């Protein structure tokens, strides 16, 4: 009897096992990530460190002739970098080991241009080694940036340089432990010192480096290193240096076309739905306007609003986020940057504190073979290895979550089980409010992670409808949150005549100060535009009266208004619209130069009175495909529009990838007239654009 019972039980077990097994697991669809890419994607957030000779020369790109003697940080502490990154929840640090000027932060055996010829630690230091140890101590992964372009090396552009470059790669990938990411920047070739030749060396990025072979070398010596950037890479640039992916973001790329030079980099922002290779996007951005530290940017650290937007537009849009924290001349991440980073991480942490779906009743109108292994519960079980899956032929389906009582939500987080490919092309989200379903979002891709922000709704149920997918649907995680209302900072603008305008979101009031004090509800309430043509620092705050919450403080600094400014002469271009370059609006643009008026081109401005100035800025066009950017400039001042003295000349480094306001400083000088000369351009065309010219008082 006992025996019989046992056999019956045994048979019972067997039959359940075979029922489970008779369900075939879903098959991969299209390109899938490698384990290395999966591990990398799950890091989500890591730091970038730009720290080199440029930190000491106040440049964004060194020319290659700067002396290594200038590298002399007074308090370099890589453990501080690691601590800051760790506390911010980052998982690694990518260090720029060599930037375009060729200076090496490690004592490379192949060059004298390195820390070994710097006064720091009497030439005995090795920043890469120190950072590798600090990363280990703090449980962070180490990544490295080795600039392919070298403006110092005499052989750059010739075959000999490729051996040099590969030798350095070998040093970096064998002497410092595991490197999680190798970063190859796209800026390649142009003018430089090149061992004293001082010339322009153009190369074809795709041919010159023989990337296929370089990659083979890397995979041989460092198989765990993910290679980013140019060549047949395993992760791609997101196509801008603002840290944004598009809402539609495929982790796929038509890399063959890319390697044949047929893909414009703006396409990286979305990837390619029909890409033949898994090449996920990495969004890189600096916490300041520039990549290297400049004291003049101490008050230009990105605002909390910008930082939060960056998070939702990168990690929230299926990309990883590589955030640059440039150490200052001491060798420390600056206090201002740390403060902002802390505010940012606290805000993001708070946004995801209250999860509301885990305890809901979840149902789906389809799940694979009605088998529990693929049931909708898997999307809320907190286990990233289980997923809700539909039957193979089912490419549209709904998953619904019923709350025990009406619940407030304003964030939704979704994740596909990307190990089997990225599939979802479109989806909608509905909320059941007062018994009626209401569509609250209509979106496209999901990928590894997609986070939606929407106005708070109080719902009795939520429903996610996948409305289009390449193959069956596999979702491993769905969460919803009730984040505190984020009040956006007011926007401040001032026009040419000094008229100040402020704008905030509906439902909030703006309070401001003009005397440098911190604004609060006791400060002046903004009601209508007002005139303030003098130099001023305006600080404003928005208060959501209903939520009783306030925004971060917006600060706008202005010199004297431009009401008495006039453009007195231009070498070409349309004179009727030229005032756009002095209208106080950084968006309106004007161009000079054409087929008959080639570079250099100039514009002369009369400021109406003698002023002491110590710099100028050029605001380039920032939106669009053809920005017609100026690459090299000269800037002159005069008291009488007859006798001129040159105050500054040089390049707008990195303007192509990062077309931000270009600030150039010089020793203070009295001037009434200023002359801005465009000497060379980024694009081949003969048209060159200026949005605004400012002076720094
Ligand atoms: C760019 C470089 O030219 C910048 O200097 C910086 O390193 C940035 C991350 O990549 O393209």
From TrEMBL:
GO terms for cellular component: lysosome. Its EC number is 3.2.1.51. It comes from the Bacteria. One of its GO terms (molecular function) is alpha-L-fucosidase activity. GO terms for biological process: fucose metabolic process; glycoside catabolic process. Belongs to the glycosyl hydrolase 29 family. This is alpha-L-fucosidase. It comes from Flavobacterium commune.
């Amino acid at each position: 009897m006992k025996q019989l019972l046992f056999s019956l039980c045994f048979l019972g077990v067997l039959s359940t096992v075979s029922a489970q097994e008779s369900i075939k697991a879903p098959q991969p669809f299209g390109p899938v990530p490698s384990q290395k890419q999966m591990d990398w994607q799950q890091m989500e957030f890591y730091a970038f460190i730009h720290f080199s000779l440029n930190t000491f020369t106040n440049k964004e790109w060194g020319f290659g002739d700067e002396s290594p003697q200038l590298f002399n940080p007074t308090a370099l502490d890589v453990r501080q970098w690691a601590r800051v990154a760790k506390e911010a929840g980052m998982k690694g640090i990518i260090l720029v080991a060599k930037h375009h000027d060729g200076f090496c932060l490690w004592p490379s055996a192949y060059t004298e241009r390195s820390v070994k010829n710097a006064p720091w630690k009497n030439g005995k230091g090795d920043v890469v080694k120190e950072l590798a140890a600090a990363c280990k101590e703090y449980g962070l992964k180490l990544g490295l940036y080795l600039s392919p372009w070298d403006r110092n090396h005499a052989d750059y552009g010739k075959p000999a340089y490729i051996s040099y470059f590969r030798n350095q790669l070998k040093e970096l990938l064998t002497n410092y432990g595991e490197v999680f990411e190798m970063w190859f920047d796209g800026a390649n070739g142009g003018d430089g010192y090149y061992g004293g030749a001082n010339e322009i060396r153009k190369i074809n990025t795709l041919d010159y480096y023989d990337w296929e072979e370089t990659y083979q070398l890397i995979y041989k010596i460092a198989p765990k290193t993910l290679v980013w950037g140019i060549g047949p890479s395993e992760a791609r640039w997101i196509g801008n240096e603002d840290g944004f992916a598009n809402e539609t973001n495929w982790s796929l790329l038509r890399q063959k076309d890319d390697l044949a030079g047929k893909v414009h980099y703006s396409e990286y922002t979305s990837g390619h739905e029909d890409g033949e290779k898994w090449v996920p996007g990495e969004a890189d951005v600096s916490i300041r306007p520039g990549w290297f530290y400049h004291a003049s940017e101490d008050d230009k650290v990105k605002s909390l609003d910008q930082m939060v937007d960056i998070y939702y537009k990168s990690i929230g849009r299926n990309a990883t986020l590589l955030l640059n924290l440039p150490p200052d001349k001491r060798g420390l991440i600056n206090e201002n940057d740390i403060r902002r980073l802390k505010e940012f991480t606290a805000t993001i942490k708070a946004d995801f504190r209250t999860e509301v779906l885990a305890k809901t009743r979840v149902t789906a109108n389809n799940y694979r073979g009605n088998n529990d292994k693929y049931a909708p519960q898997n999307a809320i079980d907190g286990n990233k290895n289980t997923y809700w899956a539909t039957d193979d032929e089912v490419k549209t389906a709904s998953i619904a979550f019923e709350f025990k009582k009406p619940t407030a939500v304003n964030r939704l987080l979704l994740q596909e089980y990307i190990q089997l490919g990225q599939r979802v092309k479109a989806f909608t989200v509905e909320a059941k409010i007062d018994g009626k379903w209401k569509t609250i979002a209509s979106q496209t891709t999901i990928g590894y992670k997609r986070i939606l922000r929407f106005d708070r709704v109080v719902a009795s149920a939520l429903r996610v409808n996948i409305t289009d997918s390449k193959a069956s649907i596999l979702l491993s995680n769905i969460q919803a949150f009730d984040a505190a209302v984020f009040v956006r900072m007011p926007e401040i603008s001032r026009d040419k005549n000094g008229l100040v305008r402020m704008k905030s979101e509906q439902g909030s009031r703006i309070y401001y100060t003009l005397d440098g004090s911190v604004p609060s509800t006791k400060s002046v309430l903004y009601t209508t535009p007002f005139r303030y043509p003098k130099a001023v620092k305006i600080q404003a705050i928005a208060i959501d009266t209903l939520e009783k919450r306030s925004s971060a403080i917006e600060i706008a600094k202005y010199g004297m208004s431009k009401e008495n400014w006039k453009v007195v002469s231009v070498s070409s271009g349309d004179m009727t619209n030229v005032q756009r370059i002095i209208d106080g609006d950084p968006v309106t643009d004007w161009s000079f130069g054409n087929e008959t008026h080639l570079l250099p081109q100039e514009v002369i401005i009369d400021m109406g009175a003698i002023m002491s100035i110590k710099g100028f800025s050029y605001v380039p066009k920032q939106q669009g495909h053809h920005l017609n950017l100026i690459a090299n400039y000269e800037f002159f001042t005069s008291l009488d529009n007859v006798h001129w003295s040159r105050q500054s000349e040089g390049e707008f480094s990195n303007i192509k990838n990062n077309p931000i306001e270009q600030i150039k400083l010089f020793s203070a000088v009295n001037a009434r007239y200023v002359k801005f000369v465009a000497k060379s351009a980024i694009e081949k065309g003969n048209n060159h654009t200026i949005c605004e010219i400012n002076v720094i008082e």
